[in-house]
Each structure stands twice: as C-alpha cells, then as structure tokens.
From TrEMBL:
InterPro entries: ACP_syn_III_C, ACP_syn_III_N, FabH, Thiolase-like. This is Unannotated protein. Gene3D superfamilies: 3.40.47.10. Keywords: Acyltransferase, Cytoplasm, Fatty acid biosynthesis, Fatty acid metabolism, Lipid biosynthesis, Lipid metabolism, Transferase. HAMAP family: FabH (MF_01815). One of its GO terms (biological process) is secondary metabolite biosynthetic process. Residues 244-333 form the Beta-ketoacyl-[acyl-carrier-protein] synthase III C-terminal domain.
Length: 334
C-alpha cells in the first residue's frame, strides 16, 4: 500500500476583502449605435434599460482593463501582491487562445507567487470564479485569491447585428478574497445546460473562418427572446436556492447584484423573488451596458462608491449567460 499523502489543512471560510473596477473613458450613447442598426434611443432604453455603454480604445485590452481593476482592489485590501496565491480572470473576450490573460495580469499587478488561469463561463464567469476561489481558500490550497471579470466585447460584436450591437459594453471589475474564521461567502449554486449552446454562441468557429473566411470574423450571436425567457423562469429558481443554501431569507439581504443583462430581466427577478423594499438593486446596466463577466463586480463597486450599500451587509449575486451557464451565491459586502 502506498504511504498516505499529507493533506493541506483547510479553513472555515472565505470573504471578499475589497472590490475595484475600471471603465474605459469613451462613452457610446444609443444614438451612435442606432445609426448602425436601424434602432432608436427610445427602443433601446425601453427594451434593455441601457442609456450608454463604454468602449475600450485600440490599445486597451482585457488584460490591461483587468489590471486596472485589480490594482484598485489590491490597494483597498492592503495586501502585498506577493501574498496572492491565485489569479483567476473570468473572460470570453481575451483574443489569444493562449496564454491566459490571467498570467499577464498576475505579472502586471506584482502577484509574483500566484498561479494564474482564465475561467470561461461567459456572463456567469464571475460567480463561477467566486465559487472556485471560495473552495480554494476553504480547502487550504490558496490564501488570497484575486478574481477578475474583464471583457472587451467591442472586439466580438457585429455592429450591424440588431440583436446584440446595443447591449454589450467593455470594462473590468475585481475582488480580492481571503480567509475568514466565519464563512462570508455562501455556497455556490451553479450549473450549465449544454443542450442550449446554440442560443448564445459565436457566428462560426475560428477553424471554419480560416477555411471559409466571411465578411466578418467570428462574433457573438444571440437568440434574445429565448435567453430572456430562460433567464426569467430559471434564474429566479437559482437565486432562491442560493438564498436557502446560505441559511438566510431575502429579508436578510442588503443588496441584489444580478448580472446586468437587461433591466427588464432584473425587474422580473426582483418581482419573482419578492425582495423587500430595503434591498438595494444594482441597475448599473443603464450606464455600463452588459459587460458580461465584468458586470457584477462593476455594479458592486459602483454601489459602494455611490454609498448605496455599506460594508457588512449581505449581497445576492447571480450570473447567467452562454452555455447556458449560471451561478449564484450570497456574499458579505466588503
Ligand atoms: O448577457 C447574456 C445573457 N443575455 C441576455 O440575458 C439577453 C436577453 N435578451 C434580451 O435582453 C432581449 O431579448 C433583447 C434586448 C436582446 C431584445 O429585446 P426583445 O424585447 O426580446 O426584442 P425582440 O427580439 O422580441 O424584438 C421585438 C421587436 C421586433 O419587431 P416586431 O417583429 O415586433 O415588429 C424586432 O424586429 O423589436 C424589433 N427589434 C428592434 N427594433 C429596434 C429587434 N431589435 C431591435 C433593435 N432596434 N435593436
């Protein structure tokens, strides 16, 4: 019989220590988009809740925006970057097959002792990464984990596609997680329905494009109504399960920070969950658009900066999107 392998000592829990975010400076209003897709400011506001979104410049990348957001989160946590043991970047718009954006980000923030990897779960990516980070910390594998959601969707949207061109924006949000004597990150409720991979997907694969180059390189396509209906019927169940798994009720929540997909989806989730009046609802989509994996940390940071939520309250997070992947958990606001 082989000798027993020494296990790593686990920890009781993890917590989010800090948040940071970054938005590119260029504001793109609805009129600019409408001119490209035969739409209008009124239609876009009414159907999605979006007034404007940000667009990264040519020299801004997923890694550079992630670095900006992460640098703020690290400074706010007061942790030396050399103490970070893992950097996870949730993204689907890093334009290199390899290496991972996280390796560049770890280097740029000075996380010289960190493992680094990207996580691809589209708009559920940030909550997936929080679930992984919490598990790493509780298992004793990592002490401090930097989780970043960063997207440059402007590189992967067709500006003539009426179903997507007005929705997506660029940006990044980051959190630093560390150990806690009492769990401050609730159990993650997550999953994916690969039977619906066609509902949000790329127009073609890179290899198909290589063999039959079209007018436009691979870009995002979405059956909006199908996703909308799925989000309203299924995501509310996922959020309720996350509340139950955390051992709380919705009355204990201070904030609801869903993925910023569409204001009408947020409104429907709030109604279905029957959230009490005092729960602050993140409505960052109005000015940031849908930034996929970045939308939840961006919205949380903006709520903190505006003083709409305070440290110590509980926030319900839920991400959902291509895959169709979803993940939700309750966390304590840092
Ligand atoms: O982040 C990942 C997850 N993504 C989501 O959760 C997105 C979910 N889906 C949505 O947010 C919505 O489906 C959209 C905002 C994408 C679209 O809104 P909708 O209310 O579902 O619009 P629709 O596709 O049902 O189209 C309604 C009408 C149609 O006209 P008719 O047939 O009623 O005359 C469309 O042709 O609006 C028309 N339309 C537009 N009109 C102006 C569709 N796109 C546009 C447009 N501008 N961009």
């Amino acid at each position: 019989m082989s000798p027993a392998i020494t296990p790593v000592a686990g920890r009781p829990g993890s917590r989010i220590l800090s948040v940071g975010s970054y938005l590119p400076s260029r504001v793109v209003g609805n009129d600019e988009i409408s001119a490209l897709i035969d739409s209008s400011d009124q239609w876009i506001r009414e159907r999605s809740g979006i007034s404007e979104r940000r667009r990264a410049s040519a020299d801004e990348t997923v890694a550079s925006m992630a670095t900006e957001a992460a640098t703020k989160a690290i400074a706010r946590a007061g942790i030396d970057p050399s103490e970070i043991s893992m950097v996870l970047v949730a993204t689907v718009t890093h334009p290199f097959q390899t290496p991972a954006a996280a390796t560049e980000v770890a280097f740029r923030v000075g996380a010289v002792n960190a493992a680094a990897s990207d996580l691809g779960a589209a708009c559920a990516g940030f909550c997936y990464a929080i679930g992984v980070a919490d598990s790493l910390i509780r298992a004793g594998t990592s002490k401090y984990v930097l989780v970043i959601g960063a997207e440059k969707f402007s590189d992967f949207v067709s500006w003539s596609d009426r179903g997507t061109a007005f929705i997506f924006g660029d940006g990044a949000g980051a959190v630093l997680l560390g150990p806690s004597d009492i769990p401050r990150v609730g159990p993650v409720i997550w999953g994916a329905d690969g039977g619906q991979i066609d509902v949000i997907t790329m127009s073609q694969s890179w290899t198909d494009y290589r063999d039959n180059p079209g007018e436009h390189y691979p870009h995002l396509t979405m059956q909006g109504q199908t996703v909308f209906r799925w989000a309203i019927s299924e995501v509310s169940k996922v959020t309720q399960r996350a509340i139950d798994a955390a051992g709380i009720t919705s009355a204990d929540l201070a904030a609801f920070v869903p993925h910023q997909a569409n204001m009408r989806i947020t409104d429907a989730l709030v109604r279905t969950l029957k959230l009490p009046e005092h729960v602050v609802i993140a409505r960052d989509i109005k000015t940031s658009g849908n930034t996929s994996a970045a939308s939840i940390p961006l919205a949380l940071d903006h709520l903190l900066e505006a003083g709409e939520v305070t440290s110590g309250g509980l926030a319900l997070l839920v991400g959902f999107g291509a895959g169709l992947a979803f993940a939700a958990q309750v966390v304590e606001i840092p």
